[in-house]
Amino acid sequence: MKTNTLYLATLIFSVSCSSENEGTSPTYMELTEAVYASGNVYPRNEYKLFAQGDGVLIRQLVTEGETVAKGQLLFELESNVPDARSQAATNIYRQSEANLAASSPVLKELEVQLRNARTRQENDSVNFFRIKGLYEKNAASKADFERTELAYRSSRNDVAARQQALIRTKNQLYVELQNARSQYASSTDDAKNYRLRSYEEGKIYEIYKQPGELVRRAEAVALVGSPTKAYVQMAVDESDFTKMKLGQKVMIKVDAFDQKMYEAVVSKIYPKLNKLDQTFRVDADFTGDAPDGYYGLTVEANVLISQNPKALTIPKTYLYGADSVWVKEENGEKKKIKIQKGAENLDLVEVKGGLTDKSIIFKP
Questions:
Q1: I need a labelling partner for 133 at 20 to 30 A (CA). Which of 36, 157, 262, 319 fits?
Q2: Considering the chain, what percentage of its residues have pLDDT values greater than 70?
Q3: Which residues form the CusB-like beta-barrel domain (predicted)?
Q4: How far apart are CA 180 and CA 100, in angstroms?
């Protein structure tokens, strides 16, 4: 529906006229200027619940109209791929933990090899220093001395190498454990993607999928929003958009509730023009009662632009052209004059200048 500017008027003083032939006089009236807009009611904190993975919907734990708590489980999907990935990650993580534990067979084998190397080093050390003492007293040959010295150095190097191997293996197993833990956490999070929970407390307004249906990644499963807080999304005509200001009072009629009137205030003005219907979006928050708990109710709204408790007005049918009227002069003759117009509606025009409440005007 194309929006139009409306002006609501309430009579303060009676119209001083007798007949069309005798003319009529401008009348003071309370004149309220308002911009008409159509719109809909939507819940606050609205969001769509999207699937984070591909799977079949196997459990639907809520229905439309039901209120849910934050973090509540709403839907469950089933998929073989994440289950297999999760099981593999779990097995690798457990094996990595076992490899680095105190009872690890890998580490125990290296520790046994290190102990054996140290035993050999001790024996070679005792033998070397014994032969060395004899060699210094010329009681042992040089060949025996060099042989025992070589064996001692070899066993000492073997101990150092096995110590490094044990340290290197522990570090490697630690890195593997961290990687396995990361993969395990990732697979656990991936499994959570197949259990859809609510982000915030809200009401289920619509469910897009039924149990047994395939759900793709990033596909919406349900629409959720606040169960108690709502706002009005209005479409204001391009010609009236410049009159919109934050905080303006809005009178809203909802046909679904026996045309009950609600009050709201303009809370947000969007600067982008909708080229399909040449309107701008304007939102308003309810200030009192609100038709909450429903999604998309159609409303009609009047945004109050200005109020003049005492405006000088004439019937619109007395206008000649855009801004002229026929007025009675002192000699009784009729004369066409221009007036300065203000606000107007389908019936009345506000006179800013050119006439007084004593003037007598005639229909053209």
A1: 157
A2: 88
A3: 232-282
A4: 12
